[in-house]
Each structure stands twice: as C-alpha cells, then as structure tokens.
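Marked as duplicate of an earlier ticket. Keeping the data here for the record.
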Amino acid sequence: MFWRLVEALQFSQKHLRQHLPILPAMLLFVTCLLSCVSVRVYKEPDEPLFQSQANNPQPIKDADSISVVTFNIKKAKKTELAAEELQQFRKTRNVDIYLLQEMDEKGVEVIAKTLNLNYLYIPVEYNKSSKKDVGNAILTEGTIDCREKLMLPHSKPLSKGRRLVTIAGVSIDNKKILVYSVHTETLVMSKKKRMDQWNTIIENAKMQLPNYKYILIGGDFNTLLSKDGQSAVQKFNDNGFNWSTSLVGTTASAFFGLIKPRHDYIFSKGLKVVNAYKIEESRSSDHYPVLATFNY
C-alpha cells in the first residue's frame, strides 16, 4: 500500500506543487504508515553500546576554536558515500566532533575508519524489516568517556518504537565538552509529547552544568512545521542554550523535494559561535550535514 502511494505521488508531483498547503498532512499519513514497521526496542539502560576499542589520541593543539557537524545519514544507507563526502570536506575545514543519526554499527565503523576517529554508538532499536540497528553516534579526534544512553519519553503509536540521545564527555584540545547526539520524534507523535522529549534533553543537560563548562547539543529534531521549530528554539533559549545554527536555513528535503524543512540544529552553552552553514554538496542523505564553529 505504501509503495503504491509513493508511485502515485511521484507521478503527480506537478499537481502536488499546486497544493503545497496539504502536503504536511499527506506526509503525516505516509509517516504513520512507516511507523507500522516492526521493531525491537533496546530498553536496557546500559546496552547495547559500541565504542571504538583503541582510541586514536591526537596531539594536543591547545586550539582556541572547535568545529562540530551534525548529520542524519538516512537509514545508514549511503555511509560509504557519506564518509567520502566528509573526508573531502575535511580537506578544507577541520572538524573536531561529528554527531550522526539513523546509524547502524557498520556505518559508524566505516566513517570512523575513513576519518581516523574514535566513536561511541548507541542503538535504540532493531528494525526487523531492514534487519539493522538504528541509533545515534558521536565521533571525534579526542577521547570519549562518561557515556550515557538517554531514552526519550513516549513510544510511536503503532510500532512502539522509541528515540534516544547518545551522550558523552569528549576531551579535545585540552578542553572537556559534554556532547549530545539527538534524534527526536516526527509528526507521528503529538507536539506535547515531542516537547516532553525536548524537555528531557534540556533537564539532563542542566543537571550536568556543575561538571561541564562547555555543552553541545545537536541532531535531527524533526521540526517539519516551522512553528514546531520556533517552539523548540524558544524552549532551548529559555533554558540558557544558544541556537548556534540560526543562519543555516533549511537543512533537509522531504516529499520528493517539495518540502524543505529545517530539521537539524546545534545548540550550545559556554561557547561563542563563529560561523555556521550546511554542506549543500552532500548527496548521501535527505539531510545536509550542518556545521558550526565556535570559540572557547
């Protein structure tokens, strides 16, 4: 049924362009169909968890700036292409921390090996259709400790799937930063419940303030509607976190390119943003990698 719907939509894209106001509702319908996919949720607080066995310590540069990329690599399908794109981009701009979403372990390993990075990967569920784990990762030149798996509240209404945040303390350039790789729920869930997820992330970060001077929170917040994005930004700003990628614009493509949402954000505390932008040349996902550079 779903694929017949997709074919029909592809056939009538020109017609759909004349009816853009109804597209969010149609996308919600498609999303609900996708939420029927059978999954097995990893509910254990400490597992599964995958971390690179041997850290690759980098020379301490005592730098005064740090760069971070957040990137949802759609269903970890094109991780080799994503690794090549990120490697090419790295030739023009050094990136210290990568926050990846919708990843499986193999995809994380490919990117970490290509870029010579340490990693922490925590899946939240096993997708029985694709036969792959799904979760978030943190990759960095620095060292990783203080690992945490933060399960977000509420389940999908049909599949009962869940979302999580992968959290770690990253030590790099003689500094220690608390890092969050985030993937919150789509419109398949009510706004109130999605706000509960944002609040859970914020409250966790606020509890860590006595231990960390620098905090980075980045990822895919699935704010298809602009008013949802405004609500998320307001929520983080009200709690003392800066929206560091406010000038980036839209960050993803949905509904065969007919909708260009702003899904991906980087919030920060204790850091001063220097610049931020998206890597529009990327073709490995329906999201763009989003980068922000900060001064300490």
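See parent ticket for discussion. The longest strand covers residues 118-127.
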